[in-house]
Amino acid sequence: MDFNVRRLAADAGTFLSRAVQFTEEKLRQTEKTELDAHLENLLTRADLTKHWTERIMRQTEVLLQPNPNVRMEEFLYEKLDRKVPTRANNHEVLGECLIDAGHEIGCGTAYGSALIKCGETEKQVGSAEKELIHASAINFLAPIRSFIEGDYKTISKERKLLQNKRLDLDAAKTRLKKTRTADARAAAESELRISQSEFDRQAEITRLLLEGISSTHAHHLRCLNDFVDAQAAYYAQSYQYMVNLQKQLGSFPSTFVSNNNQASASLGPGVSVPAPPAGGAPRAGASVGGAQASPLLGELRASSSPRRARVLYDYDAASSSELSLLADEVITVSTVPGMDSDWLMGERGFQKGKVPITYLELLN
To answer: Mean pLDDT for the chain?
Structure first.
């Protein structure tokens, strides 16, 4: 009991001495032992490493799981040491929706079959995304998190001990300055030697730990390479899945080919002529432009009189000077002096604009 009391009293005295020394330093009433420049640089580098490691870790988690509610739920499961429930990601949910829609519409129809194929591909992309998240968690997030929760905590602990040893050293220096008798001076000098020895030893321990940050950087660099490799594999897989899907959709009849696959013929610098949708066969008497224009088109140009024309394919105007078209509608067309030979001026009621001749069939 007496030993414990004496120990508590000694600890209280040490704490009070450090508190007094710290306060006087803040008030600039006493001198402070400065750490050497090399050690200060190591401490700064450690702080920067910790700061940016935390930020990189948070932003990577946001990238892999953008939903903050799901991230919080996964964090709680991890803290409770419980397995995170398996859930479908957005690609998989969309894939299931597309597949269900395809079956409802009819897998025997072109649209229904396309929906099912798209749904299966979305689920493949979703599976690849899960592999990316799993690989990134193991090979990137876990190692850099272990630095924050392990190595840096050890550094912080030893750094705090170094701070206490420095305060003890400076307190011993202050007491030596205040001594008046020879006996008191001898005791103060002995205490100062012990404090200096403990401070130097703790400074060396802290320095060795801080120099290990270089190894940490090298390890994090390897983890970063693993993270990039995982992303490259994910994007390559996703791209291949989509390329395969494009090929499958391309096997459908030309009626279902995307408008984005339309070709365009060059008319000169900065000018292009829309070609009819791939696979669309012109009707009898349809104008095809240029040297292949029908006699009716030649007659139109010769007479300069407006003529009626049937639209063969849908066409979306590319600018305000053009007129959008709907398949099978009938519009009035005419030639305009100076207009390119592959275009006509089209009119629909009060609407007027350029239209490509490859999309028209002149009527008698």
So the answer is: 81
